[in-house]
From TrEMBL, chain A:
Record localization: Cytoplasm
Gene Ontology CC: cytoplasm
UniProt record similarity statement: Belongs to the CitD family.
Pfam families: ACP
GO molecular function: lyase activity
Role noted for this protein: Covalent carrier of the coenzyme of citrate lyase.
Keywords: Cytoplasm, Lyase, Phosphoprotein
Domain of life where this protein originates: Bacteria
Protein name as catalogued: Citrate lyase acyl carrier protein
Quaternary structure (record): Oligomer with a subunit composition of (alpha,beta,gamma)6.
Residues bearing PTM O-(phosphoribosyl dephospho-coenzyme A)serine: 14
TrEMBL record, chain B:
Record has ATP-binding as a keyword: yes
Molecular function in Gene Ontology: [citrate (pro-3S)-lyase] ligase activity; ATP binding; lyase activity
Domain Citrate lyase ligase C-terminal residue range list: 151-334
Name this polypeptide is given: [Citrate [pro-3S]-lyase] ligase
Amino acid sequence: MEIKETAVAGTLESSDIQIMISKAATGIQIDLQSDVEKQFGDQIRNVITTTLNALDVTAAKVKAVDKGALDCVIKARTIAAVQRASQTTDQPAWEVL
Amino acid sequence: MDNQIVDLYLNDPKVKKDWQAFLTSLNITNFAANEVDQIDYTIGIYNGDDLVATGSVAGNVLKYIGVCNKGVTNGSRFNAIVSELVNRQFAQHIYHLFVFTKIKYSESFQHIGFSELAHSDEAAFLETGSPDVNDFLAEIPRVDGQNDKQVAGIVMNANPFTRGHRYLVEQAASQNDLVYVFVVNTDASLFTTAERFQLVQAGTADLDNVIVVDGGDYMVSYATFPAYFLASPDQAVTYQTTLDARIFRNVIAPALNIKTRYVGSEPLSRTTNIYNEVLNRELPPAVQVKVIDRTQTLTSDQQVITATQVRQFIKNGELSSLSDFVPETTAQFIQHHLTPLQTRIQEGMNIDGN
């Protein structure tokens, strides 16, 4: 999927993650902020990257502010942000779940 | 329910009174009309009948954020309020937000994804979202071997571009390898941002080592320096210009290898004069400040050239002495657009400020 505009999903409340996706020329670049960065930073980045790959997103700038979200939440927020950013919310990508 | 967010309508006197009383109890006490009138909307959280958290938005700036943590987990209401404001702004496609706050709250904002652009002893200025300052800097054109060159910067509103501005740019261009002219981006002047930008470009087109750049949200913008556009007390001017100067010193100048900032001496505008003093105090030694004496550019009958005077000519339709004050490119533009410019003045555009 092609990122067409900036979009966001999620909140800054406890157990959630806010994911902002914007256009990039090439590659996936993740800027993660998390209190558990030391323990789970790589895992969170990995979930985001895997989800983006599953959605065929090859170029994107991701800004994530994590408040202790579980993997399923990270995945759901990433999918929602990508669908908003690619203007495809009318065709939910169920198979990615 | 806990953390239920509601809209606060400040045009209801009772709501406004509660809101003011709550913020005052948290030591937020500036309710001057020129601040409050800019608010687009306000939200809050009630616990029973008591307001326990609130936040507002004006354009792309979060304002009047106040939270009481009594009886709840520290930060949960703060996160709820800021999340809601941020999400509402994003829903309106405003993805780039700023906040001015007391220095002790800077960390709370950084904790939820804001990054600090600059801070002074009292205040901090932060941004979140995209495009951020790194995107802004990445867009600015560079020349080969810029890091070994002597680079200077000028920030101007140029409302409109005069012979005084031209002289300042010429001086900088003759003393440096490369000069960036940042044109103020906020559209709150008689000449629109696009017009001002175009006139600066046209008026400097013959100078090969000058690059004209949009100053974005980071140089004398409505976000960083509202007092430039609204009449404000000296203290507010000093406080805002200190942050503006530090952003230039810490973020803008190092990225572009700018070692000198040129400013015009300012006998006539109080606000700009304070700004120049603050630049002199804040920028060195990282960035030198060169003040170019304005009296070098008197008109043939010894008047100081100011854009304020040019706007006065436009208002009165006296174009006879225009070319003493502005370069040919600006004069032509004014002659061709006299009627729309005069209409803007008649419709209430203030021409006595900056």
